[in-house]
TrEMBL record:
GO terms for molecular function: [acyl-carrier-protein] S-malonyltransferase activity. Pfam families: Acyl_transf_1 (PF00698). Residues 121-420 form the Malonyl-CoA:ACP transacylase (MAT) domain. This is Malonyl-CoA:ACP transacylase (MAT) domain-containing protein. Transmembrane segments: none annotated. The lineage of its organism: Eukaryota, Viridiplantae, Streptophyta, Embryophyta, Tracheophyta. Gene3D superfamilies: Malonyl-CoA ACP transacylase, ACP-binding (3.30.70.250), Malonyl-Coenzyme A Acyl Carrier Protein, domain 2 (3.40.366.10).
Amino acid sequence: MHPLLLHHRPVIVHTLSSSSSAAAAASLLSPRLAALSLSTMAFSSSSLTLLSISLQSIPSFIGSDSFKGSNSSLWFKNVTLRSARDRNLERSRASMSVSVGSQAVVDDALFWDYKPSSGFLFPGQGAQAVGMGKDAQNLPAAADLYKKANDILGFDLLDICINGPKEKLDSTVISQPAIYVTSLAAVELLRAPDGGQQIIDSVDVTCGLSLGEYTALAFSGAFSFEDGLKLVKLRGEAMQEAADAAKSAMVSVIGLDSEKVQQLCDAANQEVDEANKVQIANYLCPGNYAVSGGVKGVQAVEAKAKSFKARMTVRLAVAGAFHTRFMEPAVSRLEAALAATEIRTPKIPVISNVDAQPHADPDTIKKILARQVTSPVQWESTVKTLITKGLKKSYELGPGKVIAGIVKRIDKSADIENIGA
């Protein structure tokens, strides 16, 4: 959330070269950040071009001083020197960025070799429940988030979270901002007691289910709390409008593996026209996959589910067929809003719902977020990858315990703790 820029003073070395290639080397300038800018003048027969190449190692906040700024209240503070293993990992995160004029291109593969140990997981739409936020109102740092939200949203969000009514809280335009704010309020509730800050400092990966990806990006410092909430507000409105424009729905299919669910979708699609076709929208966990599509297609899935030996189907209380082509009308609005939003390289890996990979380049993150509303959620792959890569402890921050339940379905031995608000 509230982003924090690491300031550095690069050493500039000027080298004349007749070649178009440049060599770079990095030197440690401070415990906080190592950066080397190598400016190379490349000559051609007709022009002189200045190419600036930067090698940067982006640390997981090593150093002994506080990183809290005026716009970084949810991020790491009072961080101490990390272990030798962590320092080696930081050095392995060196990324090359090429600057032309004022634009910088960040190597999007910066985090792809991540080795997680502790992670924050944030819930998506559907986790909301009347009464959430009740604990947050008693902690000034958490309550302040709701006050900031009121100014952006134009209504009393905390009152709706605590008192409902349920129908209002469940609406897409309300539930998405409510979950975003309540999940980040949960971070403040975790921070408050002794040992809470140490837990936050230890987190080296984060992700979120659908909407929760925005929460994870805010926590990682990719954008501010306020900018993230504005995006979430617009996202909810755009998705609601797209849902209103077509007769669509979502249904959870319980008790089948993903291959069987795909076969079920194929069978249903043979009985409906193009406008009603369905697809897997959420790959949640073994035995639980959400299918989205036209209402007639969803009805066909429900009718055929037992013949495919599904245990049950559960129609989801959402506005429409999220994470399918039905959300295409929302994409252009999201793209415009994302283009106008300042997004920075996250301070820790944030795993995308679209491809289950972390992305570092702000422009790539913007494209991924725009694609997310029409792309299937790869949550099962995300959790399996985190566990395979060595994740030892994770925390679900926000309302409900949906994420913890899914993680346990994927790995019964997984160590995950819920921090509500």
